[in-house]
Design goal:
about 300 residues, alpha/beta, eight-stranded parallel β-barrel, 10 strands
Length: about 300
């Protein structure tokens, strides 16, 4: 990456769940989850992302969650705030707040529902970068947003000094390889899919923003360290060994399974906000069976 740009983190960042209890954010559980993540060796924490159910948080809750995590972490690991929106002006407002309360970086998802043209995407991200003062991770997840960041858009955005990284959750290894080949000096690339950590890191990726690490922070961190230190055969073995659990954690839409898993581990209540709801019995049994196979239960 360019000397002008600095890495936010290398290794595994947890896209942390937001625990609820009786309809409100459960900060007691939130604090315990954060401490468990840090003691488990996680390298960074992403608050209010997809896994954190940001889409159903009120504005006040979204801000409170970011502030709480920053204060609880106390600089022990980087805190990355999910502040992207389908409304650029609102996303900027959230992003400025996150910067003010001490988030280390911003995670900006592509504008969902509105989608945007390539020109609109560029303007959306540049406007946010120009009006904030923290490094930015672009978040490409077209299966959720209906909007994909193309290579020409990545190339244009790479010119901005504060747009420093990409969370790639397109699942398209060929496109990710091309991105790293063309823009690897301008961006740190993080896997956005737990089943592609090792493939992406073998191409030059710097880590993962992970759902799996909610449940297995140490193991996810270790998988990344194996890659970073060149032990790809060890990393590949871990990737394959944990594949059944990863698949179980995505057998229904994220974060339903991982929040169910965390509840089973006694870390939070099994409470989500509609339209998210409790798992179907068959899928829940699949998840519990996988957790038992990995000695989590």
């Amino acid at each position: 990456m360019s000397k002008l740009k600095k890495s936010i983190f290398t290794g595994a960042a947890t896209a942390i769940i937001t625990p609820f209890k009786n309809g409100v954010v459960d900060y007691d559980s939130f604090g315990k989850i954060i401490e468990a993540q840090i003691s488990g060796g996680i390298d960074a924490i992403v608050v209010a992302g997809t896994t954190g159910e940001a889409a159903t948080l009120t504005h006040e809750e979204h801000c409170e969650c970011i502030k709480y995590v920053v204060e609880k972490v106390e600089g022990r690991v980087p805190v990355i705030a999910g502040t992207g929106s389908n409304d650029t002006a609102y996303g900027i407002e959230l992003s400025q707040y996150a910067c003010e309360v001490g988030a280390d970086a911003l995670l900006l998802v592509t504008p969902y529902y509105n989608k945007a043209t390539p020109k609109g995407l560029i303007k959306n991200f540049l406007e946010t970068a120009d009006k904030t003062d923290k490094p930015i991770i672009l978040y490409n997840v077209p299966s959720r947003t209906g909007c994909n960041i193309s290579l020409p858009v990545y190339k244009e955005l790479a010119k901005h000094e504060r747009i420093v990284a990409v969370k790639e959750a397109s699942g398209n290894i060929s496109a990710i390889a091309e991105l790293i080949a063309e823009c690897g000096d301008s961006y740190d690339i993080y896997s956005g899919n737990d089943d592609q950590i090792v493939p992406i890191m073998s191409l030059g990726g710097k880590g993962v923003i992970s759902v799996l690490s909610n449940v297995l922070p140490r193991e996810t961190h270790d998988m990344c360290v194996n890659c970073l230190e060149g032990r790809y055969s060890d990393a590949a073995k871990m990737q394959l060994d944990y594949l059944k659990l990863i698949n179980a954690l995505f057998c229904e839409v994220n974060p339903i399974p991982v929040k169910t898993a965390m509840a089973e581990l006694g870390m939070c209540d099994i409470e989500m906000r509609l339209p998210l709801c409790e798992m179907d019995d068959a899928n829940k049994q699949k998840l519990l069976s996988a957790m038992k196979a990995y000695n989590l239960l």
